[in-house]
Amino acid sequence: MDHLVDQGLARGFGTYPLTGETLARAIEAAVQTGYRAFDTAQGYGNEADTGATLAGCGIPRDRLFITTKVRIENFAEDRFMPSVEASLKALRLDRVDLLLLHWPPVGGNVTPSLQLLQKAQELGLTRHIGVSNYNAAMMRVAREVVEAPLLTNQVEFHPLLDQTKLLAAAAETGIPLSSYCSLARGAVFQYPLFGEIGAAHGKSAAQVALRWILQKGLAMNTMSTKPENIRANFEIMDFTLNPAEMARIDALTATGLRLVTGARVPQEPDWS
């Protein structure tokens, strides 16, 4: 079961790389639109800004779902819990709703950080736990190491990247995937197919790409600073892509566009 999808949290608002007033205005527009799931991370440098804005947004705490992520530099046993406690202080929370490991550690031994993640949950610092940027082999290890359910593996997922292996691993392990870079940082707009399909539904190219992700069974994060785009990214529940349209978009995954690579993130795992 995908908790995020089943609880109506399939559409989350991502905060990277926003800070300050720009972030505050974007979150305020997202709240007004209807977003209730918000995603930040220690590495984004915006936990305090996110926490301050959400604390004053007028939505009761129990109706918000707030995610943050522990950066690799804090995976050491003497740094993990203090870093999470610092995140909670910055976010003005007693606990987060979801705590993720942002990347697998360099070298690929995921067990120690997974054990610390589970301990954070046992200590009441987070309601749910999960991982991010894990490959299929790491997902299998995580399922064996962690006794508690892992709510998600948050990964780059969009119509221009074939993630068949991770989808298979999700089905095998019971760890659902969720999406970031959901519009491939605008690269989907280079393909007329999305606009063509959108015209048949009275929807935009972006809405078609996001609907494809939703129909793949994933929750997703999107980010924009423009209120009209924030609204459009949210308004994807009132239409359905038919099997032929899904298949046409599926064919584009062969493009193989991976945006988050080792050139930017040395700890990127071996996706093969």
How would you describe the overall organization of this protein?
This protein starts with a helix and ends in a 22-residue tail after the last helix. 41% of the residues lie in helices and 15% in strands. It has a domain at 1-181: TIM Barrel, CATH 3.20.20. It has eleven helices and eight strands. Strand 4, helix 5 and strand 5 (126-132) form a beta-alpha-beta unit. The protein is of the alpha/beta class. It comes from Paenirhodobacter populi. The record marks 69 as: Lowers pKa of active site Tyr. Belongs to the aldo/keto reductase family.
Mean pLDDT: 96
| Main sheet record | 8 strands, parallel, barrel
What is the CATH domain class of the domain at 1-181? Alpha Beta
Poorly predicted parts: none
- The CATH superfamily label of the domain at 1-181 reads NADP-dependent oxidoreductase domain
Count of beta strands: 8
Biggest β-sheet: strands ordered side by side in the sheet? 1-2-3-4-5-6-7-8
Family: Belongs to the aldo/keto reductase family.
Binding site for substrate: 102
InterPro entries: AKR, Aldo/ket_reductase_CS, NAD(P)_OxRdtase_dom_sf, NADP_OxRdtase_dom
Active site: 44
Question: Which labels suit this protein?
Answer:
single chain, 272 residues, alpha/beta, TIM Barrel, eight-stranded parallel beta barrel, 11 helices, 8 strands, 41% helix, methylglyoxal reductase (NADPH) (acetol producing) activity, Aldo/keto reductase
